[in-house]
Amino acid sequence: MREARIPTDEIMGSGHLACQGCGATMAMRFALKALGRQTAMVIPACCWSVIDGTFPHSAVDIPIFHTAFETAAVTASGLKAGLEMRGDHETTVVAWAGDGGTFDIGLQSLSGAAERNEDIIYVCYDNEAYMNTGIQRSSSTPVGSWTTTTPVTNYKKRPKKNMVDILAAHEIPYIATGSVAFPEDLIRKFHKAKDIKGTKYIQILAPCPTGWKLSPELTVWAARKAVTSKVYPIMEVTENGNKIAVWKEFEPTSFKEYIKPQGRFRHLKEDEIAKIEKDIEARWQRLLAKEEMLSSIPGL
Amino acid sequence: MKKVVMGNHAVSYGVRASEAKVISAYPITPQTHVVELLSELVANGEIDAKFIKVESEHSAMAACVGASAAGSRAFTATSSQGLLLMTEMLHWAVGARLPIVLTNVNRAIGPPWSIWTDQNDSLSMRDVGWIQIYCESNQETQDAIPQAFKIAEEVQLPVMLVLDAFFLSHTYEIVDLLDVEKVREFLPPYNPELKIDPADPHSFGNLASADYYMELRYMIEEAMDEARGIIKRVGREFGEHFGRHYGMVVPYRCDDADVILVTSGTVASTTRAVIDEMRDEGIKIGALKIRVLRPFPFKEVSEVLCSAKKVAVLDRNISFGNHGIFYQEVKSALYGKTDIPILGYILGLGGRDVTPKVIREVADKAIKDKNPEPYINWIGVKK
Ligand SMILES: Cc1ncc(C[n+]2csc(CCOP(=O)(O)OP(=O)(O)O)c2C)c(N)n1
Ligand code: SF4
């Protein structure tokens, strides 16, 4: 008999309110499988404040506290302190936010929590825009992308903010990126995060068919191609921001293939695609160089 | 134990006596001493609590929200700009029905920058759903904290305690410090039935349709209403334990008064001195201090004021476009109950001194003034 590598307990139930093919629901399902039921979660304003279901129903079988948009990390800090003062040192406290709630409006309180090294897991399910309010750009929206506030005549020109580096600068014990196309990798990372004390940051690429103008059956395909085209590197940063391990064991695929079924990139011309591709490769090389450089320096 | 302490430290000692479990705060003049002493008390183990040193007041209230949702007693203190920054989370505490206690040191709002007292900061939060209690002395400031937790935890609404910047926050007075053991008999440990608990998972605050939202607001108003009786009962019980009784309002020489001055905060003490002086001159005047602004003590206020021939409300705040806020409140309490003139006076904004002379000026004016005209009476404005 083979042991299931993905826990079979389904803590997220059916009856949620997400769109078809929503990557954010997959992220939650995998995260909870790894974290188990001794978990409490804080959710700020984002698609997940709707996905959870309307009062008095909830699609998730753990305690959830819905909080204001910019407060995921700090409400989780308070929750953790409150549980500990009641003698509960076991419950894993998770802040679960979208990229807008993480990269933009929630950055201040996330930075505060990370600097204090609060014992929480902060998860950003990254769908690369404000989806709940109808697909507006966030600072996580990738260069070249259309959103309703970056129309095709003036698409996003600035690169995605590098949250991993920002968190690494806080010297927290664990940072990881992942993609819903790789559930086993995600589950391994959540298991690991659960056992580390201090602030853990996990950022998961969670394609949004609605906002990406992508056919819902292609969610996992896109989540995989984002990684294999080096657009969305999967990595772990450990030793308080001082060691990087980048996942490289994949057959590289092209950026062009990745964006082809996504309406949000449809306006891009050949030369624009070529320029973005060049930058992706440069960023990838820089990342590998950094990984290599840090490998020979003692960590903290 | 009696000790000479500043108002801010009276707050910290009140928190110690109440055994708050999670404290989260951010410094702002003139509240900073509260936070400093609390961090010291937590660091040296005099309070068994966690102190979350956040990066903003918005986060301070969010941390309290999280801690309280987990079932722990939570406290914060702030002032002025800090309270304003908290606004969104103040609403959150109410909607989530969390019994957080906050002490706000009344400080004027900028610009221009001012660190001195007036009430516009706390009064701009009048309609949020926090119980609001205005303190007059350092003793009251300390005593209010265990009472606030007791009230909050019974009605599941947060309580804001308010004290004047500098006139209380930085002024030293003798305070009978509360004993933790004795407070324990008065204030039982907090152990709410509903809380964040993986053994009993619930989702708190998720999307509610129009089928539910209004009922949830109705329940908040019901709790506010219920708080009227509870605040009085808790004030009495506190008196039984510690010998100091507290009510919704404090009337002073009102029984046969023709004119009653309505005040709040430290202006109330000064007003009483002026009342004594005028009584000595044979003038029938009294004063009513409003201690609890929310829930508004309609009954107590109208009972006292209806016997007078004239009422003058002293407001250390202004609702631009519609008088002082206590004035509005008193007017609405007396609506349909009497047709005596109710006069409103604005004074002391941005920390301008409200001396006995200033209050005497208001009192003399009130005796002469007939109807609430001119529309707003400004006291001491250089025109
Ligand atoms: C203070 C505040 N500003 C704005 C909003 C409106 N709002 C709600 S969700 C949201 C976007 C959320 O985007 P993101 O965090 O990326 O999550 P997603 O919706 O994509 O899942 C916005 C702008 C709000 N709720 N609160
Ligand atoms: S808009 Fe996107 S992220 Fe939001 S529920 Fe729909 S698919 Fe999921």
Give a description of the structure.
The complex is a heterodimer of chains A (300) and B (383). Chain A has an 8-stranded mixed sheet, with helices on both faces. In chain A, helix 1 (23-35) packs across helix 7 and helix 3 packs parallel to helix 5. By secondary structure, chain A is of the alpha/beta class. In chain A, 37% of the residues lie in helices and 14% in strands. Chain A has 11 helices and 8 strands. Chain B has 383 residues and is α/β, with parallel strands linked by helices. The longest helix of chain B is centred in the middle third of the chain and has 33 residues, at 210-242. Chain B is globular, with a radius of gyration of 21 Å. The A-B interface holds A 37-40, 42, 49-50, 52-58, 60-68, 70-71, 74-86, 88, 91, 108-109, 111-112, 115-116 and B 21-22, 24, 49-50, 52-56, 58-59, 62-72, 74, 88-89, 92, 96, 196-198, 200-209, 212. Bound molecules: thiamine diphosphate and iron/sulfur cluster. Thiamine diphosphate binds next to strand 3 and helix 4 of chain A.
In short:
The complex is a heterodimer of chains A (300) and B (383). Chain A is α/β, with parallel strands linked by helices and 300 residues long.
- The ordered H/E elements of chain A are HEHEHEHHEHEHEHHEEHH
Described by the principal axes of the CA atoms, the overall outline of chain A is globular
CA gyration radius of chain B, whole angstroms: 21 Å
Given the structure, what is the number of helices of chain B? Answer: 12
Q: Count all strands of chain B and give the number.
A: 16
Main sheet summary of chain A: 8 strands, mixed
Largest sheet of chain B: 7 strands, mixed
Unreliable stretches of chain A: none
Shape of chain B from CA axes?
globular
Bin the strand percentage of chain A.
5-15%
Q: Roughly what percent helix of chain A? A: 25-40%
Report the span from N to C terminus of chain B. Answer: 50 Å
Instruction: Describe the strand arrangement of the main beta sheet of chain A, using strand numbers.
Output: 2-1-3-4-6-5-7-8
Number of strands of chain A: 8
Uncertain runs of chain B are none
Order of the strands making up the biggest sheet of chain B? 3-2-4-5-7-6-13
Helix content of chain B: 40-55%
